[in-house]
């Protein structure tokens, strides 16, 4: 490690522990700028994870005690569907969100995809860049976009690297799960077709949700994210993003099937994090590998991991030449790379494979 960087980061960590977050943030930014590390001056959402105002973690009340979201229901009149704004409130906190309701909805159970944006993004930006609403229009499913608040994190990053936001029934994972359940209840969502995906900080939080709530989320998509437990505080988050977090020894608990996308030129979140995430999800599986080139330009390596029953429980896409961006995304949103394979389409394909029959 760069000695100057190590010295400055030690100072920042001490300030963080004493609660002086403003001074700690300035010290961290100074460390990045003076270290010469890749991405130190670029518009990089994951580095912005460091500007943190912590959220108090509390025990979760039962879902039926939570305040229902004030979202109108009924058949959308617009042929393109509706993109509704609402607010979720529960004892953990309050978050705004956007909800895409497809025009095909007439009260019947439909799938739901929860999309977690990256740092500095918001639901509208993330929806535009991933094209997920257009896919939902074509295929008939809901899309929920929780919005991180600047009160919880100054750069609107999900606090994936804070120890009290990495477990079931605590912090942001519990709040997102409560929000998801509230929307499911109001719209009668098919509980066997609920999925979560995210980019960067959102991808890291999606991985946490897949491990904490495998009963709620049938499958997970992690784009340019990090494995669960790769960081516990600011300084370990920096190191995990720069060099990769510790490689998991073995899978800690049953988790939802997971598909991972990561560009091998990502200088914001090191690509080795995708490998570590796969190691965490694919223990005891048999791997199949293929290499190809997308119609839009980037070559890629795809690895599928099958369990003893022959089911693909984990899938990894390494996009060659891509940086910190949503593969196959659209220029209308931030942090997208249109040249890659279509992450939105491939995640939806993977999700459908893992739908669970709903008991009658």
What is the level 1 CATH name of the largest domain? Alpha Beta
Number of strands: 12
Query: Helices and strands: which structural class?
Result: alpha/beta
Order of helices and strands: HHEEEHHEHEHEHEHEEEEEH
Shape call: globular
Question: In the CATH scheme, what's the topology name of the largest domain?
Answer: Rossmann fold
Total domains, how many? 2
The biggest sheet, with number of strands, parallel, antiparallel or mixed sense and barrel status, is: 10 strands, mixed
Description:
By secondary structure, the protein is α/β, with parallel strands linked by helices. Helices cover 29% and strands 20% of the residues. It has helices spanning 3-17, 21-35, 123-130, 132-139, 171-187, 201-212, 234-243, 272-281, 343-353; strands at 82-90, 93-101, 112-116, 142-146, 194-199, 219-223, 258-263, 286-293, 299-306, 312-319, 326-327, 336-337. The model is unreliable at 1-9, 11-67 and 69-74 (pLDDT under 50). The strands form 2 sheets. Strands 1-2-4-3-5-6-7-10-9-8 form a 10-stranded mixed sheet, with helices on both faces. Helix 1 packs antiparallel against helix 2. The chain folds into 2 domains: 3-37, no CATH class; 63-353, Alpha/Beta hydrolase fold, catalytic domain (Rossmann fold), CATH 3.40.50.
Describe the SSE topology.
Blueprint: H1 3-17, H2 21-35, E1 82-90, E2 93-101, E3 112-116, H3 123-130, H4 132-139, E4 142-146, H5 171-187, E5 194-199, H6 201-212, E6 219-223, H7 234-243, E7 258-263, H8 272-281, E8 286-293, E9 299-306, E10 312-319, E11 326-327, E12 336-337, H9 343-353
Parallel strand pairs: 3-4, 3-5, 5-6, 6-7, 7-10, 11-12
Antiparallel strand pairs: 1-2, 2-4, 8-9, 9-10
Helix pairs in contact: 1-2
């Amino acid at each position: 490690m760069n000695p100057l960087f190590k010295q400055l980061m030690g100072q920042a960590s001490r300030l963080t522990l004493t609660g002086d977050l403003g001074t700690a943030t300035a010290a961290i930014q100074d460390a990045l700028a003076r270290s010469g590390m890749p991405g130190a001056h670029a518009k990089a959402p994951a580095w912005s994870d460091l500007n943190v105002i912590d959220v108090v973690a509390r025990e979760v009340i039962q879902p039926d005690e939570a305040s229902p979201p004030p979202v109108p229901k009924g058949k959308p009149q617009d042929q393109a569907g509706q993109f509704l704004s609402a607010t979720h409130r529960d004892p953990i906190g309050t978050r705004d969100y956007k909800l895409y309701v497809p025009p095909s909805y007439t009260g019947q159970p439909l799938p739901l995809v929860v999309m977690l944006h990256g740092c500095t993004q918001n639901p509208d930006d993330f929806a535009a860049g991933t094209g997920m609403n257009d896919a939902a229009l074509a295929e008939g499913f809901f899309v929920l976009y929780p919005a991180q608040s600047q009160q919880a994190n100054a750069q609107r990053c999900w606090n994936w690297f804070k120890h009290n936001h990495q477990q079931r029934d605590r912090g942001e994972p519990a709040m997102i799960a409560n929000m998801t359940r509230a929307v499911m209840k109001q719209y009668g969502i098919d509980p066997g077709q609920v999925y979560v995906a995210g980019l960067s900080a959102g991808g890291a939080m999606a991985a946490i949700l897949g491990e904490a709530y495998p009963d709620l989320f049938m499958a997970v998509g992690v784009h340019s994210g990090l494995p669960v437990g790769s960081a516990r505080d600011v300084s370990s988050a920096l190191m995990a993003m720069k060099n990769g977090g510790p490689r998991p020894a073995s899978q800690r608990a049953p988790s939802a099937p997971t598909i991972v996308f990561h560009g091998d030129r990502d200088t914001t979140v090191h690509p080795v994090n995708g490998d570590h995430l796969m190691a965490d999800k694919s223990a005891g599986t048999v791997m199949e590998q293929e290499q190809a080139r997308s119609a839009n330009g980037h070559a890629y390596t795809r690895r599928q991991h099958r369990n003893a029953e022959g089911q693909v429980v984990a899938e990894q896409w390494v996009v060659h030449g891509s940086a910190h961006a949503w593969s196959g995304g659209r220029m209308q949103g931030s942090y997208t790379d249109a040249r890659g394979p279509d992450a939105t389409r491939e995640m939806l394909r993977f999700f459908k494979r893992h739908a669970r029959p709903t008991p009658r």
